[in-house]
């Protein structure tokens, strides 16, 4: 009887799936570049390497939806990053230093006329916002993406809401800290809003992420864009205050030059790192196949590495040319230059500047 019941239930599920309006898609990007980098270590040696893409990291994933009626859909997405040169997975964690199976995104949710609700590992609101308002859509090399490390990219245990109503695009998310007896330790939350009207777009974002001790890393920003002919102009501002030490120690210190983690974290609680960052950039569709992008970032940092009045600056310029061989395949070339001064010199391993150049190919499937 038990075996018959299982067979009957399986048959009912299969019959139901045959008539349901559902879909599952396998997708991904394979992006590799040959990159040259100056002053790559404490000896200021040059480096040649085969590495992941300049503006897109290689990834693969599954996403799907099922129509539930009345414009309501069940949705899911599972996405993991990887390095094609080694086959290694990305998005390492403290519990899994070799990477996560679905480290980029892993969520299930509902979507309808009201918007979209998702539960799982997701992008932070800061990343969602600046992905639309950065000329590079947030780069992939440290040398062209560092301004947006303040967003921390992703968070675990998140419930999010996103909705589009005419020209208004809004989002809010909350990440459970999952610490017994505390609602704030390891907690994340953020909110964003953007409005598009004609060729203009403008918006802002705020978020904060707390560590296991309840110290918080805050990030806020505002940006705008304007399209004219085949060009689009971008301007933006990012501010931050970090009492956790994670931005200095976890993201923006070169491993060969960074102080010990305990030193940075202990100092940051009383002397938080503060960022005042601005950028301006332009994209130009020169031909249907050729897109050109240029952007300049500048940051003034206070209390670098948790040391009071240890201030400094970082400047970056990036040029990118992308040529489409087809709808799915592009080749590209890029050049970037970074310079640091004062307290931010620990963000470089040797001299206070680096120049990089790369050629790459990207295939989307």
Low-pLDDT residue intervals, each spanning 5 or more residues: 1-19
Number of strands: 18
Q: Bin the strand percentage.
A: over 45%
What fold name goes in the CATH topology slot?
A: Porin
What is the mean predicted local confidence, pLDDT? 92
Task: Summarize the model shown.
Its main location: membrane. The chain has 365 residues and is mainly beta.
Give a quick set of tags describing it:
mainly beta; 18 strands; single chain; signal; porin; ion transport; disordered N terminus; Porin; 365 residues; Gram_neg_porin_domain
Write the layout of secondary structure elements.
Elements: H1 2-19, E1 22-37, E2 47-52, E3 59-69, E4 72-83, E5 88-89, E6 105-112, E7 115-123, H2 125-133, H3 142-145, E8 154-165, E9 168-175, E10 188-197, E11 200-210, E12 216-228, E13 231-242, H4 246-252, H5 261-270, E14 273-285, E15 290-302, E16 312-324, E17 329-342, E18 353-364
Antiparallel strand pairs: 1-2, 1-3, 1-18, 3-4, 4-5, 4-6, 6-7, 7-8, 8-9, 9-10, 10-11, 11-12, 12-13, 13-14, 14-15, 15-16, 16-17, 17-18
Could you explain how this protein is built, in words?
This protein has five helices and 18 strands. It has 365 residues and is mainly beta. It has one domain (23-364): Porin, CATH 2.40.160. Strands 1-3-4-6-7-8-9-10-11-12-13-14-15-16-17-18 form a 16-stranded antiparallel barrel. A hairpin with a 2-residue loop joins strand 3 (59-69) and strand 4 (72-83). The radius of gyration is 22 Å and the shape is globular.
